Structures are given as structure tokens and as C-alpha cells.
Amino acid sequence: MSKQLQTIMLVEDEPDILEVARLALEATGPFTIHPCNSGQKAIDTAPVVKPDLIILDMMMPGMDGLTTLALLRQNVELKSIPVIFMTAKAQTNEMKHYIERGAIGAISKPFDPMHLAEEVRQIWNKEHD
Asked: Can you give the three-state secondary structure of the chain, one letter per residue?
């Protein structure tokens, strides 16, 4: 029996995208979403929230997604939390690179809000079957 996906930390620096993704995942998931607007905030908040999954924007000012993922993996409490990247750069070779760096998948931007939860669930189920 695979672990049920319930709590997602959503890390996105663009307020409009963060809000649309949060609403879409809460409405169609239905998931509990903990929004973060930066990689640093995710690193600070994740130990408290202990999410089942982190959806991480790739391109953020200050600390990008790969740097955030590397820092999450250095924390004993956080290193096993699955990460899905959300990025406009989702070509096959880039996707392969994200997986090699420790992500379980990637979602292309722009995403379809009506299908976002299903996309997340498919990546999650593939990883947890």
C-alpha cells in the first residue's frame, strides 16, 4: 500500500502562479498546501510542516530550485521528502538532469490548473507503487 499524498509544500516566487497552483491543488486534490515564496523559506518551514511532497519552482531569485533541493537533502529530517520541480525548462534532457539531482519528476509551466493535481498524483503514484 503506497503512502497517501496529503500535505504539499508549494515553493514559487511568483505570487500569481503560487496562488493559482495553491487554489488548483486545494480544490482538485484535495491537498493541504503550505505556500512558500522562496527557497530559503522552504528550508526554514519544511522541518515544521513535514510535507509529504515539495513542489519546487526551478527559477527563483536568490536561491534556485536545484540549490534549494541540495540544501533540503543535507537536512536529515528533510532528505527523504520527494520533490517535483515546476519549470518552464522541461525538455527531455533537462528533465533527466532534475531526476539525476534527486527530483521524482517535473511539471511544465505554464501548467493547466484543472489538471495540476492529477499530474502531481501521477508522478507521486509512479514513485510510490
From this structure: CCCCCCEEEEECCCHHHHHHHHHHHHHHCCCEEEEECCHHHHHHHHHHHCCCEEEEECCCCCCCHHHHHHHHHHCCCCCCCCEEEEECCCCHHHHHHHHHCCCCEEEECCCCHHHHHHHHHHHHHHHHC
